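sorry for the late reply, my laptop died twice this morning and i had to redo everyting from scratch. anyway the thing you sent over, i finally got around to it. pasting the sequence first so we're on the same page, its 390 residues, then the predicted structure underneath. double check i copied it right bc i was rushing
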Amino acid sequence: MKYLYLSDVGDGLCMRLDTIGNRSILIDCGSQAGSEKAFKGFKKIFRYHYEKPDIFILSHFHIDHYNGIFKMENNSIGLKELYCPGIPEFTKKGLKDEYLMALLCMTARVLGNGSKSAEVDLINKMRDITYSKFFFRHLYQNDNVNINGLRIDVLWPPKILKDEEITKLIEKAVQDFNKALENDCELRNIYKKYEENKIIEKYLYTDENHRDKVFYEPEIKKQEFKKNIESEYIEKDKDVDNGKKIETDNKEKLHCTIQTANESLRKAANQLSLSFAIDDRILFLGDLEKKEIINVIETLKDEERKNFAVLITPHHGTHWDDSLKSIRCEYALSSNGIKMIGKFKEEFKKISNNCESTFVSGDILFPFMPFLSRYDYTFYEFIKRFLLII
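ok and here's the structure:
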C-alpha cells in the first residue's frame, strides 16, 4: 500500500487507499453536514490526478457514510468492485429481511427522496454512475479480500449472530420502524415501492459459483470519458468555499416516530458495522459499539496481532472500550467535525504515538513505506525517509 488519504468531511467519513498495484479504494463517502460536503471531500482526494476509485467499500448503511455517492454524475467512474457489510442470520426467523428492509426504506425517507426512492438504492446508484461491469459482495467475519496482493481481513460482522442483546436491539429497531410506517405516508410509499421491486433480494442474494459475488452491468453505456472528467472534477465548489452554510439533505422536520425509528436503526447498524485489518498497517473499526469492539479485540488477540501503523478510531473517535488498551498504533486517526470532536475519547492518545483528527488537521495524507515491516519511526524520520525515495 502506498497512501492513505482521509478527507475532511466533518462528522462523516471519506477515505481513500492506494495500493502498490495502482488500485484505488474508496471507503465510505458521506457526511452529517450533507451530501454536498461529502462529495466535495471525494473530489479533493480524487481530483488532482483525475483518478477514479476502482473499488468502493461501505462500512455500514448510515447516510452519513454514503450520501456523497448520490451527488456523483452518471457514467463518471469505472467501478470494478463493491463491498458492503453482510447482515447476519439472527436467531429469530425473518428478522434479517425485516431489518434490512427497514434500514433501506429509512435511508430513502431521511434523504428526502421519497418520490425518487429507487435512486437512493446504493446498487442502483452504482449502476448509474459507473461505466464498467462490477461485482457486489457482502462481507462477513473471517472473509478476506485480495486486491493485487493487498489482503483485507474482515473482523466483523459475523455471518451468524446469536447474541441475544444485539438481537433484541435489532427487534426494537424493526418495531420502531413499523410504528413509523403507520404514521408516515411517504415512508409507506417507499416501502411499497421497495416491496414491489424486491429490493432486498440483491442485498441478500448469494451465488456459490462466484463465492458470493454478484455481477452487475452498468445501467448506462460508457460515453465520452473526457466530458465526464471535466464536468465531475473541475466543477466549482458551491458550499464552504463560497461562505454558504452547508445544509443537510432533507430540510423537512420529520415526524417524531420517524426520528425514533431512525435513531434505533442507526444504533443497530453501528453494531453491525464493518471492521477489518490490513496486516500490520491498518486497523479499521468502523462505527462499532463497546461490545463489538471487545469481540474484535479478542479476535486480534487470538491471532497475536496488536501493533498497527494506523488505527481508524471507532465512531469518529467517540467510542471506546478498555480492551483497546491491548493494542498499539503509530497513528490514531479520527474523521470528525464540530459535533463529534466534543465527544472525542482522550484514551486514544494513550495507545498511539500520534493522534490526529480531521477537525484539527484538515485533510490527512499518510504515506506508507512498502519495504518497512515495523512502524517505529518518529513523524519527522518517516517523512525524511519518504522524501529520499521520491
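DSSP finds eleven helices and 17 strands in the chain.
thats about all i looked at so far, will dig more tmrw
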